[in-house]
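> example.struct
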């Protein structure tokens, strides 16, 4: 049976640090912040709605108290007038009542009416009485003998008393009669009134405030006065809801949004720097694994850079420096081994090539002189001995060149520095150089009394090497000119001869070991290729130097610079 392959819809993988930071920030900061903002917003909205309802309830109770107080006050006023007219005769009562109503800001009219007890008008039977048609308040005081003092309050005064101590130019207040007739209103709006009127309840206990309507966050308070059928309604217009509920809600939402954006920006900035620095760590590690030991980790350091990242980068750079140093030392040692190997190969080649000729000559002439079967004359004997001596001296010089190299490289050359007369040293050198008589030598330094501070024997060895090179490599038939100058505390010896042009790169290589202008297959002159290397090493040991210049017209200049010395 074939096994069914399970379809993997989601393949989990280990999150990177940056991804983990984003997930942690999302679940620990942003989502809780949003949830908290929503909860706070709802709680705040509900609290504000409750406060609006309580305020509406207080306003309804205030209107209730104002109406009750107005009736009490009006009764007191009509009683005072009734007491006063008892002391007036009938002719003056009408005049007095007319004068009071004319000059009063409370009553619009005052009069005395006579009614039997069995046929009392409604405004007397229910006094104080609020006429729903005229919205006039009528107060009555019995005078006896079926007579009643009837006073009608001014509408302006009544309206002022109903809404006394209410300074609200937005909230709507409606005062209705028991039959539903609108008596008084504050901030009346026909649309709002009709909407509220259509939802008025049928039965509400007197003296109790109740909430009506289904509009969210827009409470409407309904109150029926306890001692009368008057109904008081306090409505919350949309503008109040907008300013008191929705505007704070939007402010909370905007504050939450700004906080979320600020959190996201801060987290993004942190993640950005963290991501860059972690990439730097990865690049450094990858470079190290590929053999780039000089690669350094360069972090973007700021207040958002974690201490652990900085510490890890510093430790990595230290380790990379140590590895790079060890690698450099190893590379240097390998290079030195290569140089030594090359030196060994060159040394073997030089010894085998350069030493073979003098040894062959010495062996040949020595064997010839030791034979007893032939007779050797005096001239032949002297010639053979001279050749043996010259070849021995050549071997000695080559051996001496080889032995002086370790001293030069180890800076262990023993020198006995003293003032040396350059002219005398040149004269001795010219007598020591072989075959120099075949070349014209122009010695302009012979008549100059100039001293250098150097080791005499080593100085003569330097001059011999340079003059022999000029003689060996100079173009046949061209002169060798020697001159010298002294500038301040430096003496420069100048040798000029004519030789094939040598480019600058080759000139620099002439001072290296075993470097010759002719290779092993085209070699035309004898030598180990160590002459200029030894010359430069000896000059540097004596605080001097050497420079070589070759020109296109075959002029070849050698400059030897040494410290000036004074004759003792």
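> example.seq
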């Amino acid at each position: 049976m074939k096994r069914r392959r399970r379809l993997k819809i989601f393949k989990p993988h280990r999150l990177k640090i940056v991804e983990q930071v984003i997930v942690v920030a999302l679940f620990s900061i942003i989502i809780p912040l949003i949830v908290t903002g929503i909860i706070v917003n709802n709680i705040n909205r509900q609290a504000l709605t409750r406060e609006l309802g309580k305020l509406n309830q207080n306003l309804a109770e205030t209107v209730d108290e104002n109406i009750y107080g107005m009736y009490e006050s009006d009764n007191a006023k009509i009683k005072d007038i009734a007491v006063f007219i008892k002391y007036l005769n009938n002719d003056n009562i009408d005049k007095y009542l007319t004068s009071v109503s004319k000059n009063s800001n409370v009553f619009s009219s005052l009069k005395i009416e006579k009614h039997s007890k069995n046929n009392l008008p409604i405004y007397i039977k229910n006094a104080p009485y609020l006429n729903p048609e005229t919205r006039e308040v009528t107060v009555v005081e019995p005078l006896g003998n079926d007579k009643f003092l009837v006073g009608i309050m001014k509408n302006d005064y009544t309206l002022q008393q109903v809404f006394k101590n209410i300074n609200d130019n937005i909230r709507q207040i409606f005062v209705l009669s028991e039959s539903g007739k609108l008596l008084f209103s504050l901030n009346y709006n026909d649309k709002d009134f009709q909407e509220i009127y259509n939802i008025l309840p049928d039965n509400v206990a007197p003296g109790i405030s109740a909430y009506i309507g289904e509009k969210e966050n827009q409470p409407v308070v309904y109150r029926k006065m306890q001692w009368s059928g008057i109904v008081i309604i306090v409505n919350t217009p949309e503008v109040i809801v907008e300013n008191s509920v929705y505007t704070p809600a939007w402010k909370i939402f905007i504050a939450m949004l700004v906080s979320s954006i600020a959190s996201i920006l801060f987290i993004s900035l942190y993640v950005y720097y963290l991501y860059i620095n972690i990439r730097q760590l990865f690049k450094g590690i990858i470079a190290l694994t590929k053999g780039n030991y000089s690669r350094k980790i360069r972090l973007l350091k700021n207040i958002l850079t974690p201490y652990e990242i900085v510490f890890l980068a510093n430790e990595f750079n230290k380790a990379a420096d140590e590895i790079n140093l060890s690698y450099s030392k190893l590379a240097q040692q390998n290079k030195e081994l290569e140089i030594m190997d090359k030196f060994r190969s060159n040394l073997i080649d030089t010894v085998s090539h350069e030493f073979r000729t003098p040894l062959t000559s010495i062996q040949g002439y020595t064997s010839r002189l030791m034979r007893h079967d032939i007779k050797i004359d005096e001239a032949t004997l002297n010639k053979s001995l001279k050749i043996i001596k010259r070849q021995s001296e050549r071997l000695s010089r080559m051996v001496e060149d080889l032995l002086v190299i370790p001293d030069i490289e180890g800076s262990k050359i023993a020198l006995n520095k003293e003032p040396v007369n350059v002219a005398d040293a040149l004269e001795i050198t010219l007598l020591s150089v072989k075959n120099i008589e075949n070349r014209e030598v122009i010695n302009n330094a012979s008549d100059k009394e100039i001293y250098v501070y150097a080791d005499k024997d080593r100085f003569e060895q330097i001059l011999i090497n340079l003059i022999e090179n000029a003689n060996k490599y100079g173009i046949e038939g061209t002169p060798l000119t020697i001159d010298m100058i002294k500038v301040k505390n430096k003496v420069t010896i100048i040798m000029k001869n004519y030789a094939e042009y040598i480019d600058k790169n080759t000139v620099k290589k002439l001072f290296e070991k075993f470097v010759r202008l002719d290779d092993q297959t085209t070699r035309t002159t004898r030598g180990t290729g160590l002459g200029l290397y030894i010359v430069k090493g000896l000059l540097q040991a004596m605080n001097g130097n050497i420079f070589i210049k070759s020109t296109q017209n075959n002029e070849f200049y050698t400059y030897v610079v040494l410290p000036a010395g004074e004759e003792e």
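> remarks
Residues 18-236 form one domain.
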